[in-house]
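Re: beginner question about structure tokens

> Can someone show what the tokenized structure looks like for a real chain? I only ever see the sequence side.

Sure, here's an example I had lying around. Input first:
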Amino acid sequence: MAFSMITPKLIILPLLAFIATAILVPIVRNFSKKIGAVAVPDARKIHKNIVPSSGGLAIFAGFLIAALFFNRTSPEIIGFLIGGTVITGMGLLDDIFDLPPITKFFGQVLAALIVIYSGVRIEFVANPSGGGLLQLGFLSLPFTFLWIVGIANAVNFIDGLDGLAAGVAGISATTLGVVALLTGRYDPAVLAFTLAAAAFAFIPFNFSEKMKIFMGDSGSNFLGYSLAVVSIMGMVKVAAVFSMLIPILILAIPIFDTAFAIIRRLLSGKSPFVADKLHLHHRIMNKGYTHKQTAFIIYGINILLGIVAVLSTQMTDKQAIYIFIAVVVVLVISAALMGLIKIEKIHFHHNS
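And the corresponding structure tokens:
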């Protein structure tokens, strides 16, 4: 079934997104300098020099150029693209003006409401008593809203290291695309692979010394939003228990890192929005790994989770749930043994 769905569009559109993004990044880099969308070093940030920070605009534009050739004008896809434009635009304003959190949140809320209105909704959840699926009914709206806003913020949280957010988003989108194909969801598969291509095209510039650029909030918010929406379109609307768990497996790294960051800050009596240097990538770097090594370690974990997610589509619902629980337990134990989730006194850094 999956192979019969592989058409030229499934190859051409991701290739177009990759090429368009690669061409646009240097242009956006110069534009970013002119409009003042730059990241200035401070005690919390790893970089030492002023870096253009609106690279997400190139990722969004590269993806959009390819998506315009999709030739499918369903309300869901139109809503997805409009919402993506809103969240990218608000992110760009934040890259320029450093908006307060509540203003950025408004952009996420607006984007989520637009795409929900277009028909993208989580309609089922796994029944915790083991009785198959529960129809959410009117609760589908808040569930969908929390998923979209939550994943947008989760990807934003892990965007603290060169190549990390783009790599995790690209790997996650690729996995979503493979699973969507395996479950007969062609349209979301094309969108997922196209999103992955745009994210991957950005990575070399993010790692570069001479042409360095950050994706900024415009990129992390767009990628997180898009991953959340595509996961709903590709899997969560499929009436199977494993379809509810797969997006969580695929996006486990940003979800895990965000959840622990919130718990850590609340237990320390701090606002969950106050930034610190205790994210997963910070803790791995504290073990002596370089920036690039840390990114590749997290890529490796992300790929393994993706493989498990793909394999789980070939299992029964019960087997998939057992695998999901096992993966979560292994992740938590491994992180604890490595000292990655140890609660400790937190030192927050403030600009003088």
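Each token stands for a local structural state, so reading them left to right follows the chain. The radius of gyration is 19 Å.
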